[in-house]
Amino acid sequence: MPIDPAKTAIVLIEYQNDFVSEGGAFHGAVQGVMEKTDMMANTRRLVAAARAAGVTIIHAPITFAPGYNEITSHPYGILKGVVDGNAFVKGEWGAQIVDDLSPQAGDIVVEGKRGLDTFASTNLDFILRSKGITTIAIGGFLTNCCVESTMRTGYEHGYQVITLQDCVAATSQEEHENALKYDFPMFSTPMTAENFASQF
């Protein structure tokens, strides 16, 4: 699969302290899968190689104002867990992008992510189209939630979507593997970080 770095972006979903770092609200829930995939080391290596090749790096953090007034007052499912865990609050340590992947000059941070699909409430699609991006490679959290939701919409929008199999994690190995095996191949081309980097 030929990859033109000038038309390619890596979308890093929620590499924030509440997931990635010890003491984060959801770190304990994802730590096992993170360690099994070695996702942080894989992501760091890939991002460094991609920047050097001219690939656009896009960070997609999720954040909420204190009190979570941007979402329903009766959240359920995953967003209830966010509220109950007091996670991803703007201005707090848990919502910050982890230091190892902090945005660098030339990176883009999308604004407005409040739910699962990165396209839904942000300017991601506008940014990609304005830059002539046609290929997106996705990594982050959770394998079967925000990564999968963003993958599906990217596919529907006509992007060439690559899912980075060893740069994602979920709250259980079973959920992670199910998404990789059954869902990712339907809406993307799954690749390891190393395989993807070898394409540019």
Low-confidence sequence ranges: none
SS class? alpha/beta
Order of helices and strands: EHHHEHEHEHEHEH
Record field, number of beta strands: 6
Shape: globular
Ends: how far apart?
Answer: 10 Å
Described by strand count, sense and barrel closure, the largest sheet is:
6 strands, parallel
How would you explain this protein's 3D organization?
- By secondary structure, this protein is of the alpha/beta class.
- Helices cover 38% and strands 16% of the residues.
- The chain contains 8 helices and 6 strands; from the N terminus they run βαααβαβαβαβαβα.
- The chain has helices at residues 17-20, 27-37, 39-53, 77-84, 124-130, 146-156, 173-187, 193-197; strands at 8-13, 56-60, 108-109, 135-141, 160-169, 189-191.
- The longest helix is centred in the N-terminal third of the chain and has 15 residues, at 39-53.
- 44% of the residues are buried.
- The mean pLDDT is 97.
- One of its GO terms (molecular function) is hydrolase activity.
List its traits.
single chain, 6 strands, 8 helices
In short:
The chain is of the alpha/beta class and 200 residues long. The protein is 38% helix and 16% strand.
What's the helix and strand layout?
Layout (H helix, E strand, L loop, with lengths): L7 E6 L3 H4 L6 H11 L1 H15 L2 E5 L16 H8 L23 E2 L14 H7 L4 E7 L4 H11 L3 E10 L3 H15 L1 E3 L1 H5 L3
Parallel strand pairs: 1-2, 1-4, 2-3, 4-5, 5-6
Helix pairs in contact: 6-7
